[in-house]
Amino acid sequence: MQNTQNTGARQLCLRLTRYVAPYWDAIILATGCMIATAATVPMLAALMQPTMDEVIANRNPELLQLVLLGIISLFAVRAVAGHLATYVLHWAGSKLAVDLLCEIFDKLLVLPHSYYESCPGSNHISVDHVSRITSDAPEVARAFVNVMTVMIRDTSTVIGLLGWMFYLNWPLALLILLMSSVILLVTQLLGERLREMGRESERAIEGLTRILKGAALNFMVVKLYGGEQYENQRMREQAEEARRFFMKRAAVASLYVPLIQTIGAAAIVLTLYFAANEAVASELTTGSFASLITAILLLIVPGRRIAEVGGTFQRGLLAAGSLFSLLDGEVESETGTVVIQRVRGELQFEEVGYGERTERNPGTSLKVRSLGNSDPAAVLRRGLNSGLHDVTLIIQPGETVAVVGCAETMDVLTYMVPRFLTPTSGRILLDGHDLRSITLASLRANIALVSPHTTLFNDTVAANIAYGAMGRATEARITWAARAAHASEFIRKLPDGLQTMVGDGGVELPVSQRVRIAVARALLKNAPLLILNEKLGMLEPDSVPLVQAAFDTVMQGRTTFVIADRLSTLEKADQVVMVDKERIVDRGSHRELMARDGAYTRLIRRVFGSKTAVAAR
Fold first, then answer.
1. Residue 466 and residue 474: Cα distance in Å, rounded?
2. 350 backbone φψ class: left, alpha, beta (φ>0; ψ -120 to 50)
3. Which residues neighbour 59 within 8 Å (Cβ) at sequence distance 6 or greater?
4. Are 591 and 402 in contact (CB under 8 A)?
5. What was the pLDDT predicted at 129?
6. What does the angle CA 525 – CA 529 – CA 535 come to, to the nearest 5 degrees?
7. Cβ–Cβ contacts within 10 Å for residue 489, how many?
8. In this structure, is residue 276 part of a structural domain?
9. What contacts 76, CB < 8 A, 6 or more positions away?
10. Domain residues for 461?
11. CATH number at residue 528
12. Domain annotation covers residue 297
C-alpha cells in the first residue's frame, strides 16, 4: 500500500512538472535568489567569531566597522534576493494555478451530459463542486511555493549552518545534529498522531451528524414507531464517543509544546555544557562558542519548516489528484463527420429507445403527471431513467409538436435532439441525416432553447442576448430581438438599458424578464429548430401574457418541440404527443385526441378544469 501511494505521489509530481516547465527561467532565477538568501545565514553566524574574539576581546574598532558593514551588506542581500525570490516564485505559482483552471474549464465545456447529472453517485456539478475546483488550483500553487521555498532556501540554510558548525567543532556539531534529529523525529511522530486523532474525531462527528440528520428527515417514522428513546440513546452514545476522541486529542496536543520545549531545552543545556568544557579547555574560543550558539539558534526556524512541509506537500498532492481526476474524465463523444448548414427542420424518430426496458403490469393504469413539470435540475436529479422505448415520430419542417405527459420522458425526447442524450436503440434523422453522423457544432448551431428555468450569465443584458457565436451582433439586431420578445419595455427602464449587469444567474431580474431575454436570444439566433419549455407556473401573474406572446413569436416558422403548459398551444399544435414513462401512448391533433375521450381527455380536464380555468389559460 505504501509503495502504491509513493508511486501515485511520484506520478502526480511528474505530471505537475509539465505545468511548471514553461516557467523554468523564473524558477532558475528564484532558485538562485533563494540560495543567495540562504548563504547569508551562516555568514551572519560566522561574523560572530571575529566580533567576539577581535572586536570585543582585543578592542579592535577598525574591525568593528568592517563587521558592521558586513552585517549591513548581508541584510541588504537578504532583502533584495528574498524579495525577488518570493515575488518570482509566487508569479510562477499563480501562472500554474491559472493554467490549471483554464485547462479544467476547457475540460468542463466538453464533458458529456452525464457528468452534469445531479443524481446520487454521479459526478454532478454543483456549487460545492465548483468551489472545490476553484480552491484546489490555488492550493496546488500554494503547495508549490511552500515546498520549493523549503526545499531550496531552508534546506540550503540548514546545510550551510551545519557546514559552519562542523568547521568550528565537528564533535559538537555532530552532537547537535543528533539531538536535532531526535527533536524532529518526536515532532513528526506527535504530529502524525495528532492528525490521526483528528481524523478519528471527524469520523465521530460525521456519525453524530448522520444520526441527527436521519432523525430529522424521518421524524414521522420516529414519532409513529416510538423511536424517540432509541434515537436519543444513539445520539448520546455517539456524542460521548466524539467527546472521548476530542479529549484524547486535547491531551496529546497539550503535551506537544511542553514536550518539545523540554527536549529542546535539554538539548541546549547539553550543548552549552559541552561547549563550555571545550572553551575552558581552550579548544574553543569565545568567538567560536558565540558563533556556534548563534548557528544553533538560526537552525530552529528552517528546521521546523522542513519538519512541517510534509503536511503542505500532502495537501497539494490531494488537490492536484482531485483536479487531474477531472482532467482525465471522458469528453463528450463526437461521432459526427457530416457538417450541415441551415436545415429545413424535418425530424424523424425511428423506433427510438433510451435506457433499460421496465416491465409493466398488464392491469396497471396509466399515470400521467402535470403537463410541464420539467425543471431540468429536478429531471437530472431523477437521472432521466424513464426507459423510453419504440418511439416512432415524423415532424415536418415548420411543424409544432406539443409534448404532454410524463416529465422525465418529455425531457428525454427533447434532450436527444441536440444529442445531450444518445438513443440506446433506433435512430433520429434530421433532414435525412442520422444525428450521430452530424458534427455536434453544426447540429447545435441549428437548435435554439427557451426555458423558464434558463439562468443568465453574470454579464450585461446585451451580452446575454447576443451570447456566444452571436457576440458580434449589432445593437440594432439586439434591440430588434428584444422588441420581438416583448422585452424592450422593461430593458429601457433598467439603469443602463442593454448594458445593465443582470447579476449571477440573472438574480437582478424577475423570472419573467429572464425568460424574455432567453426568447430574445433564440430569436437572434434564428435557428430552424426550437426546443421550448413553456411552463409558466413560477412567473409573476401580470407578466404571463407578455411571456406567452413572446413564446408565440419565437415559435413562428420553426420546427418546434414544445413541452406544453397552455391549452392554446395544444390547440394550435400540428401534433400533440402524449407520453408515459416508456413510450408514446397517443398522438394526433388536440381535437382528435379530445374526441377519443381517453387518457389525454382526462389529463386536460384534470389540469385545466372548468371553462373558467380554460379561458384563463
1. 9
2. beta
3. none
4. no
5. 63
6. 90
7. 11
8. yes
9. none
10. 347-353+382-609
11. 3.40.50.300
12. no
pLDDT score recorded for residue 399? 92
CB distance 481 to 524 below 8 Å: yes
> Within this chain, do residues 461 and 320 fall inside the same structural domain, yes or no?
no
Q: Which residue has the cell 432567453?
A: 518
Is 525 within 8 Å of 490 (Cβ atoms)? Answer: no
468 and 544 in a common domain: yes
Of 414, 415, 437, 416, the C-alpha closest to 425 is 416
Question: Rounded CA gap, 475 and 469, in Å?
Answer: 15
Contact assessment for residue 264 and residue 184, using Cβ atoms and an 8 Å cutoff: no
Residue 103 sits in a domain whose CATH number is 1.20.1560.10
Residues 40 and 58 occupy one common structural domain: yes
**Euclidean distance between CA atoms 248 and 417, whole angstroms:** 60
Which of the residues in the chain have pLDDT under 70? 1-8, 57, 114, 116-131, 278-284, 356-387, 452-454, 536-538, 609-617
- 133 vs 324: CA distance, rounded Å: 11
Quick one: 28 and 104 in the same domain?
yes
End-to-end CA distance of the chain: 66
DSSP classification of residue 364: P
Give the pLDDT confidence score for residue 75 in this predicted structure. Answer: 92
Q: Which of 264, 297, 330 is the last residue in one of the domains?
A: 330
Q: Phi, psi (5° rounding) for residue 579?
A: -120, 150
Pairing of strands 400-405, 559-563: parallel
Cβ atoms of 581 and 546 closer than 8 Å: no
Same domain? For 45 and 133 the reply is yes
Overall size of the chain counted in residues: 617
Residue 430 is predicted with a pLDDT of 92
H helix or E strand, kind and range, residue 576:
strand 575-579
Same domain, 135 and 227: no
The predicted structure's pLDDT at residue 420? 86
Q: What angle do CA 450, 116, 463 make, to 5 degrees?
A: 40
Place of cell 500554494: 142
Residue 40 belongs to some domain of the structure: yes
The CA–CA distances, whole Å, from 106 to 18, 300, 334, 470, 471 equal 17, 45, 16, 20, 19
Same domain, 491 and 533: yes
Question: Exposed, middle or buried by CB within 10 Å (0-12, 13-18, 19+), for 365?
Answer: exposed
Distance CA 510, CA 452 (A): 11
What's the gap between Cα 335 and its chain centre? 28
Report helix, strand or coil for 532.
Answer: strand
CA-closest candidate to residue 514, choices 505, 523, 522: 505
As beta bridge partners, residue 563 has: 403, 533
Q: Quick one: 191 and 144 in the same domain?
A: no
| Residue 289, in any domain of the structure | no
Listing DSSP states for 478-521 in one string gives HHHHHHHTT-HHHHHHSTTGGG-B--TBTTTS-HHHHHHHHHHH
Encode burial over 476-486: b for 16+ CB neighbours within 10 A, e otherwise.
ebbbbbbebbb
